[in-house]
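Renewal narrative, Specific Aim 1. Our central claim is that a sequence can be written position by position from structural information alone. The example that follows is taken directly from our test logs and has not been curated for this report. It begins with the structure tokens describing the chain, in the order in which they were read.
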């Protein structure tokens, strides 16, 4: 049976689409009862997303925005279907928009040995129309404000999202919480792994109480401290 939505804060839910936390999407409630959906999982995820909406008392028509952290198939695979189900506009970082429209995965880091290997396995990505783009400093007017943090490296247009009123940070793939251990995203799947590590440091500079990850469970206590300690330790080890 699919894992149910997990409430992270008032009006904010993590929606597992693979396992209990292997791949997550997020729903953010607005004051008018509509929702923003953040990330859409793999191509088969919409069935779980629609079921999760029902469990929190919402219908597809209640989704007013679809926000995507970046153009990788485990984040945008269900975007076209969810757009069709909900009618909601799709937004993604300005430097990833063309990849999503064209159905082409962003380039992989050729300086990493496995990046070279995976580059030979094709570049196809589930395509979707893009209704709007996101850039650093944008604030999406949902749930008290969803602030866009441009954290490139995993992909050129990768964005993390800070839910300012609820105190939740959605990291995207800037960092993972894989098996309850914070880690950088896998180098082989980054466009520029060194840049991805550099921009991840931003996530320790903003204020939040809960850190939520596309890959892995949330950190609900001392989250900012845990992220800052991770970034600081990695900087010392470099």
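The sequence written for that structure reads:
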């Amino acid at each position: 049976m699919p894992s149910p939505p997990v409430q992270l804060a008032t009006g904010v839910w993590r929606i597992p689409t693979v396992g209990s936390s292997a791949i997550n999407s997020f729903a953010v409630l607005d004051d008018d009862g509509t929702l923003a959906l953040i990330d859409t999982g793999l191509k088969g995820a919409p069935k779980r997303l629609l079921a999760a909406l029902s469990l929190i008392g919402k219908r597809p028509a209640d989704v007013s925005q679809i926000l995507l952290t970046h153009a990788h198939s485990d984040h945008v695979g269900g975007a076209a279907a969810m757009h069709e189900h909900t009618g909601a506009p799709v937004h993604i970082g300005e430097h990833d928009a063309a990849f999503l429209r064209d159905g082409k995965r962003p380039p992989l880091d050729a300086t990493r040995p496995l990046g070279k290997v995976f580059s030979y396995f094709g570049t196809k990505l589930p395509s979707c129309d893009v209704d709007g783009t996101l850039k650093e400093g944008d604030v999406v007017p949902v749930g008290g404000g969803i602030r866009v943090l441009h954290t490139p490296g995993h992909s050129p247009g990768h964005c993390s999202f800070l839910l300012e009123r609820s105190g939740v940070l959605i990291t995207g793939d800037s960092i993972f919480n894989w098996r309850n251990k914070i880690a950088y995203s896998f180098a082989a799947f980054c466009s520029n792994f060194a840049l991805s590590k550099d921009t991840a440091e931003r996530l320790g500079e903003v204020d939040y109480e809960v850190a939520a990850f596309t890959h892995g469970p949330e950190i609900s206590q001392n989250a900012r401290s845990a992220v800052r300690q991770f970034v600081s330790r990695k900087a010392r080890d470099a």
